[in-house]
Amino acid sequence: MSSEIDSSTLLSRASQLIDLAREAGADAADAVVVRSRSQSVSVRLGKVEGTESSESDDFSLRVFIGKRVASVSANPGFDLQALAERAVAMAKVSPEDPFACLADEASLSRAYPDLQLLDTTEVSAEMLREAALAAEAAALAVKGVTNSSGAGASAGMGGLVLVTSHGFEGSYMASRFGHSVSVIAGEGTGMERDYDFDSRLYYAELDDPSEVGRRAGDRVIKRVNPRQVPTGKDVTVIFDPRVARGFVGHIAGAINGAAVARKSSFLRDKMGQQILKSGLSITDDPLIVRGPSSRPFDGEGVSGERLVMIEDGVLKHWFLSTSTARELGLETNGRGVRGGSAVSPSSTNLALEPGDISPEDLIRSVGNGFYVTELIGHGVNMITGEYSRGATGFWIENGELTFPVSEVTIASNLKEMFMRLTPANDIDRKFGVAAPTFAIEGMTLAGR
């Protein structure tokens, strides 16, 4: 394990790569190694269906000559000098990019905190197999569950090694463990499927696999014998936390600086304006100790800080990397993420902050409406905000969840949905995108 965690050799090779790029004619450069170690076991109906194990250290070199930039990638064992010379040769014939650059030296992180992202617990393939089998067995033991789509357990770690030509050198690793299971209830054309999972940085904090299985079984039997409901044009829709997190992801996409620069966000002209109800906030914090998406520095060597992206309903920040910030006439806020050699902005630990009402009281306050547990399709236009998704869930009648519902569509515009959103108080921050149950008034529901 220690050899997998120790990054000193990779830092040394990355530093050599930078020196060779400068000798070959680069004005500036950075070298990044994306590290990955993982193992997983999948089972179905009590038998192992697959085991996987992988590890990689993927190198990328990015070089700058004036306003020209080029990037190359390689696996371990490559010739350092050949790679550096190739990158420089490519940069010399590349078109100019007025925004591509390293982060300003003044913004680089010189010291960063230990965020306790790495659990070195050794998890064997046998432990993973037993966890997957336990999750599936618990789900199948729930009365009404008729079949299994499979269960799995995984363990791994990943991280980043980064060296730049203007003085940054750093690395970090983060672990990840998970249990999941998917099961079926009903027979023939009346079959329904549902699932549950848990994912944590620390193995000891994982939910017991039997509990994950039981939750999956409980969820699926409630979906049997669904009905359709009449079409309505002023329906209050409540989003279960599992789908609420995906909805908050739409907000994150709309306030991503890259989308704003491309003019592909429906919020591109809304900075400083109210886009959520007063009192609502969305935060993003890369420095949460043991946070699921924490990082001590971003893909350019810049340490981010906690930002209130939307405060009291008002849009305050875009997610920014250095090049995106320059294109918008701003400064990076440490949200650059490496995708190979490219850098683009992204969120870290993003949260729609909770309200002060319980989910049960929120449902009671609706009277009649629709509680969504799963969304289907990709009917979201991020340029216009038009929103239309297939949905399943439960009908709310007299403030109570009654019968399951399927084969309906919910629709509105995200701008209107944001302004009609009311959150409950049940947020679970173990996810990189966290959101409580919330209600959105005035949606169109297409049923029978």
Automatic annotation (TrEMBL):
<dbReference type="Pfam" id="PF19289">
    <property type="entry name" value="PmbA_TldD_3rd"/>
</dbReference>
<dbReference type="InterPro" id="IPR035068">
    <property type="entry name" value="TldD/PmbA_N"/>
</dbReference>
<dbReference type="InterPro" id="IPR002510">
    <property type="entry name" value="Metalloprtase-TldD/E_N"/>
</dbReference>
<dbReference type="InterPro" id="IPR047657">
    <property type="entry name" value="PmbA"/>
</dbReference>
<dbReference type="GO" id="GO:0006508">
    <property type="term" value="P:proteolysis"/>
</dbReference>
<protein>
    <submittedName>
        <fullName>TldD/PmbA family protein</fullName>
    </submittedName>
</protein>
<comment type="similarity">
    <text>Belongs to the peptidase U62 family.</text>
</comment>
<dbReference type="InterPro" id="IPR045570">
    <property type="entry name" value="Metalloprtase-TldD/E_cen_dom"/>
</dbReference>
<dbReference type="InterPro" id="IPR045569">
    <property type="entry name" value="Metalloprtase-TldD/E_C"/>
</dbReference>
<dbReference type="InterPro" id="IPR036059">
    <property type="entry name" value="TldD/PmbA_sf"/>
</dbReference>
<feature type="domain" description="Metalloprotease TldD/E N-terminal">
    <location>
        <begin position="29"/>
        <end position="91"/>
    </location>
</feature>
<feature type="domain" description="Metalloprotease TldD/E central">
    <location>
        <begin position="121"/>
        <end position="223"/>
    </location>
</feature>
<feature type="region of interest" description="Disordered">
    <location>
        <begin position="332"/>
        <end position="351"/>
    </location>
</feature>
<dbReference type="Pfam" id="PF19290">
    <property type="entry name" value="PmbA_TldD_2nd"/>
</dbReference>
<feature type="domain" description="Metalloprotease TldD/E C-terminal">
    <location>
        <begin position="234"/>
        <end position="447"/>
    </location>
</feature>
<dbReference type="GO" id="GO:0008237">
    <property type="term" value="F:metallopeptidase activity"/>
</dbReference>
<dbReference type="GO" id="GO:0005829">
    <property type="term" value="C:cytosol"/>
</dbReference>
<dbReference type="Pfam" id="PF01523">
    <property type="entry name" value="PmbA_TldD_1st"/>
</dbReference>
